[in-house]
Design brief:
DNA binding, single chain, dinitrosyl-iron complex binding, transcription, iron-sulfur, mainly alpha, 4Fe-4S, 123 residues
C-alpha cells in the first residue's frame, strides 16, 4: 500500500523506495494500479495512541480496500521484502507480516537443514 499524493511530507520521507518487480518491467509500476491510491492514508496507517477498538476497526476497513485491489499480492510481497514496519500493506497488518516472515524463515531454515543433512549422507 502506498500513501496517496496528499500525504504529509514527513510520512512520505519515512517510507522506503519500492523495489522493482517483474510486473513493473511489463506494465509500469505495480503501485500505479493500487486501489489504496484513491483512499485516505489514515485508513492504512495508525495515528499515534489510537485506541485498540478504533485500530481494529480501521485495519478491517483497510483490509476491505486491499481485498478488492488488483495488485494486492505485489503490495504484500513489497511489504514483506523491505520489510515495511507499519501500516496495512497487501491486506496484512504489521503484526501479521511479522508472523508470515517468521514462518518463512522457519521454513527456509528447515529446508536448508534438510539439504545439509542430505549432502552429509551422500558424502
Amino acid at each position: 500500500m502506498l500513501q496517496p499524493p496528499h500525504q504529509s511530507l514527513q510520512a512520505a520521507a519515512s517510507l522506503p523506495a519500492p523495489r522493482a518487480s517483474a510486473r513493473e518491467d511489463e506494465d509500469g509500476p505495480w503501485h500505479s494500479e493500487a486501489v489504496c491510491r484513491r483512499d485516505e492514508a489514515g485508513l492504512f496507517f495508525a495515528p499515534s495512541k489510537e485506541p485498540t477498538a478504533a485500530r481494529l476497526s480501521r485495519e478491517q476497513a483497510a483490509k476491505r480496500v486491499c481485498a478488492r485491489c488488483p495488485v494486492m499480492v505485489e503490495c504484500r510481497e513489497h511489504a514483506l521484502l523491505l520489510p515495511e514496519p507499519y501500516g496495512v500493506w497487501g491486506g496484512l497488518t504489521a503484526a501479521e507480516r511479522r508472523v508470515v516472515l517468521a514462518r518463512r524463515r522457519r521454513r527456509e531454515a528447515a529446508a536448508a537443514a534438510g539439504e545439509a543433512g542430505q549432502v552429509s549422507r551422500i558424502a
